[in-house]
Amino acid sequence: MNTNTLSGLLKKGDRVAVSNVTGRESSKVSIISQQYCSNITAGWALAKGGDVINVHGGRDIPVFGQFEDLMKKLPEKERPNKVIVYSPPEAVYGDVKEVISSGEGTVETIFVITEHVSVEVTAKLKHLCDDAHMDIIGCNTLGMINAHDKVRVGAVGGDAPAESFIPGSATIISNSGNMVNTIASYMQSAGLGISFGISTGKDPLILTPLQELLALANKDKHTRLIILYVEPGGTYERDALEYIQKIKFTKPLLVYVAGAFAEGRNISLGHAGAVVEGACTSSTDKMRLFDAYFGVPAFDPKDEKAARRNIARKKLGIRVTTLHALVPAARLMMDALGISQDFAPVRPLALNPWIVELGQLARKLPKELVLQAGTIPSPYKEIFAQHLKGDLGRTVTRQSMRNASHASSNDGATPRIYGHSLPNLMKRCSFSRAVLLSWLGVHPKHEFEAELFEMCLTASITNGPGSISAQGAKLSASAGNEPNTAIMTTLGAIGIVHGGNGKAAAKFLIKMFRNTGMTDPYDQKKAPDLDKLVHDFVSDYKKRKAAAKETGLGLEKIPCLGHPVFNKDQVNYDPRERVVSQYLDEHKLYNVFIDFYHRLTRELTKQGVTGKSHAVNIDAVLTGVCLGIAWPMLVDRQITMERAYDLPFLTFVLGRVAGGAAEYLDHRESGTDMDMRTPNSDCRMLTRPRD
Amino acid sequence: MNPRIGELTFLEQLAQRYKLPVPEFLSEPVSQSKLKEKLEQWGAGIVKPDVLSGKRGKAGSVIKVEKEHEALKALREVAATEVNGMQPRAAYIVQSVPADLEIYTSIGYNSHSLSPAFTVSLKGGMDVESIADKHKVTVPLNVFQGLNAYQASEALNTLGLTGKLNSRLSMVFVNLWDMFISTGMLSCEVNPWRVTKSGQIFVCDFKATFDENNFKAKDLGLHWPEYPTVETKFESEMNAWAASSHQGQAHVSPLGGKKILPVLFGGGASTIIIETLAQLGGDPIFLSDFGGNPPYERMKKTAAICFDHHLHSCELLLLLGGKANNTLIDETFSAIADALQECVDAKGPVNIPVVVGRGGAHLVQGIEILKKTLDNLRLPHVIFGPDTPITLVAEYAASIVRQGDKQAKGARS
Known about the structure:
heterodimer, A: Rossmann fold, 4 domains, 25 helices, 18 strands, elongated, B: alpha+beta, Dna Ligase, domain 1, Rossmann fold, seven-stranded antiparallel β-sheet, four-stranded antiparallel β-sheet, 12 helices, 17 strands
């Protein structure tokens, strides 16, 4: 190797460049790395030059088209001395050659994260890097982390590197990337922190062999103990043990060798290089080599005294036979060799189930297997509290939705909505029911819900030609546009203060009701105490209004109260809301949200926040109806809050599309071209002529 | 899976292309008259199975014949006889080459030199592990320059072989390298080369493994032989699915177990978990690695294949991995949950315990999604976080199925 220290491979102040930085995995990992340690100065990706990867709470990553370009355009102090290769397998050779050619004299280390690189190319990369005096780690490494300097390359530590890698005295060298992270977490139970975590990769050729890494770890001032996770395949361990016996090697080793169970069976393990070929490459051969080096038998948790004695006598280390034995063995080693704890050990390693739901099975199992739910540690406890208890709605989960849909499908024979045959829906259900199915994934539970929803659609068709969305259609028709353009103009004239206030109302109502424990919004008897709810809200609102007035700051409006047309009386009503309310009364139905809104207007007047009772407008009604349908689904966590927020707005939009169409048809039939133009004489000039 | 070939494919498709000297051969279908003609010409022939037996295990199935009726009988017998539990693809007959000298050679990638390496020994005809170090020479090679005749000659010199034979062998060894590097091989072994009294050289057995990641091997234009396998429908379906994309792992290796259906994540973690299960009587059905941050669709199909074949016959479902570095847990768990729900919808309910252990990004969201499905399906479950070691979770899962064994035994008695 060209470097002679582990920090030579990675330290604070290193400047990192990432190949194929815009890829699915590389961009995600790079953003987390940037938030953790901000060491990425740039990336490059074919045909993506000029892009920028935005990093929330960190330094954005500029993207260049080629590495050569990156080297030319970056200021000298930002040119990378470390490179991470995330390119597809077939591009790795070319990219590394480009790094060598353009980065000579600047780039010191190349980390090849890519999996499935051919062995021939891997051998060629080693040769080229040796010639260029660059170190190369991989292929198929996960990267490495320097916990004391709080820097990483690659994905070591996942999305929360600081959580697993507390600075300390152990260096982990592992054939498995996952095990670097897992072992670092385990070591917290021994009070042992981490100096370096290194994923070597486990392809058939490991380009940074164990002996070289051990030589570097031997010189690291923070490292007092080295933990190895070893798999079958290759003679790296034999070579390393022969080597360290020739040099002044002072660091004790704690070793776990996996994979012995596969010997003699035709099983391929998860890593491409975990293949037994020749002497000293099998797990049992490697175990034998380590045991011979340590001069003590493998760690037996039942006889810790003997193990401690053995470790203290030989001072070279010990091998464990199961992964979780690393923790007691580490404790013993620290005790026997005088290695102090880096911090007070966290919880002991033990079965700590977070959720236990054994049901009838519990009766059949012996007591020791019927576990009780344990303590969920932070930060998971808090996230659970937020997600699993007392909250509404399904958690948003993300996946690529390109060419994929839950809402619709077509197998070449039958188009479907959420799995329901469209031809069958055409025969058996109303448009309103079909729309609700397509928006919620299930048919409405009650027939009256579809009827109320249809009333809402009808109510949304129009509020007269003066409404701005109707004006939109008329303007477009007047300009001679086609129907689709007129509809777009109608939709373009809808916004959060015209038609879209239902979204704010949904958020407002959900906020008001989410902690009430209410499950059925149609059950008046089980409804929460609405008087108290509105009283408390209005009292608080009144205080905030007064404070806002004093400070001159604005106060958020209560959504969906009042209307520019229906506002003349002391107590105002929106006639469309009246129809819905009367329908509810006539059918002896109840909707808690609409009731809440009525009480709210009265309370606002009662407490003097407003001089007269505002109308509960149509957006509030749409929201009440939509939330009535959606609420049980939120309680049952079948839909997300996002979906519930959007329902009222979409209802208005759907109805108003029909209204816009009506205005367009009417205007095209009876209007004249350009008749919507306002004469100049009717326009006010607010700027005087300047020339 | 890296493609492998044996001697017959080499004889039929590679030897001539790379000017490697081989004896004459006949492969089935072969007529009696042709056999008679060739055996009269050769004096004797060797009937061999075309089988990927790994080591030199097929020696017991190799029969020397002199007459055509013996040859016909041997071809039938050899083709029908399993070698190390593997059924031959075919039987073939090669010219018998009497020799005084047998030579071993191999070319592969060496983890010590981190380069290709050429190994040669004059003690051919036996497993290389059985040849003492002093009787074999390994030459690390420059991957760009390969093996040259001088290096090959020096190696033979070191072993004490000089003169014209040294020179002739060195030349054909270079041809062997040309074949190795231009076809994208991972390793190839000739064991033995046979040298006749008159100094003629023949490749008398051959095996090679190609690197599935090497584009040269993919575009070779070889007609890859199809060896009979004992692959189950599950294995063939899973292998085809695994090979269809490199996005996320979809690796399984059957273990012959019946009780625990292990959906595991991470190359290292899966090894450790299976090791623990196997040691403690968990009887896992296969080793699996489904890590590497598979997208939703990839994970769902992977899980669907596993569930389709094994969910209704296993005794416990284990979803287990370490603390993920890359994988989004909500995405993988929602894919698994959906596959589980669909499998039950299609094939009927199951009543098995589910043991889960995982760590990584969006863990809580993933657990929440999974739990909802487990609740829906009324499956008893225990869910662990990353603070419980995977090996302890595996121990717990193994204990549950062992308990099931005890109860079954109790019920029988």
